Amino acid sequence: MLDFLAGLYRTHADDLATVIDGQRELLADGTITPQLDDVEAELTYLLLRHHRPSQVVEVGTFYGWSTTWILSALRDNGSGHLQSFDLVDHVCGTVPKELSTGRWTFHRGDLRETVEKVPADTGYLFVDADHGRRFARWYLEHLFGRIATGTPTSVHDVFHLPRARPFTEGAEVLRHLERSGTDWFTSSRAAAPRNLRALDAVRAELGITGVRGTSRNPMIFFSMP
C-alpha cells in the first residue's frame, strides 16, 4: 500500500501542489474550519484522482474542508459528481462556486432519513460525521449495505490513539472490517507512525508541504467488504 500511495504522490505531484495552494487561500479567508489533517486530505485527493469515480458520497461536511478537497479532485479528473449529506448546511456558504457548479449536490437532513438518495453507483465513500457507536452501527448496516463490494472508502477520526477508543464509531468500524477479513490502511501518527514517516519522506522528496501543518491523520482507508 505504501508503494502504491507513493506512486500516486509522484504521478499527481504538480496537480496536488496546485490544490494545496488553493486550499491555503481558502484557509486564509477564514470561512472554512478545517477538519482533515494534511496527509489524509492529500491521500483523499490522490485516491479520487486514481479511481476516477463517477459518484462520490460524503457523509459529514461541517464547513466544507473535505468537500473542497473532494471537489478539487473531481475538477482535476474532468468528471464525477459529489453527493454530500449533513444535518447542517454551513458548507453551502463556504464552498467556492467555481468548484461546486455542475459537480455537487448537497442533501440536508438526517442520513437515516435520506439514505435512499445515496447513488447505487457510488464509486467512493467518505465518512466524517457523528462518531458515536449508535450511528456507526446504523450506517454499517444501512449505508455500507448500499455500497458495492470493492468501493474505496474512508472513515475519519478512528486513530487519535494507538488503538480506537472503546464504544466509538472507530471501534465499531474496525470490528466490522475484522469480521469480514478486510484490510485497512492508516497514516495515523499514533497508530502507524512508520506509515506516516514513509509518506512524509516522499512528500519531502517532492517538495510537498501541507496546508495546515498538522499530522495526526487518524483516518482509515479500505475497500468496501
UniProtKB/TrEMBL annotation:
Protein known as: Class I SAM-dependent methyltransferase
Molecular function terms, GO-annotated: methyltransferase activity
Pfam families documented for this protein: Methyltransf_24 (PF13578)
Record EC number: 2.1.1.-
Source organism superkingdom: Bacteria
UniProt KW Ribosomal protein keyword: no
Any one biological process term the GO annotation gives: methylation
Alphabetical keyword list: Methyltransferase, Transferase
Residues forming coiled coils: none
Gene3D superfamilies on file: Vaccinia Virus protein VP39
Enzyme class: transferase
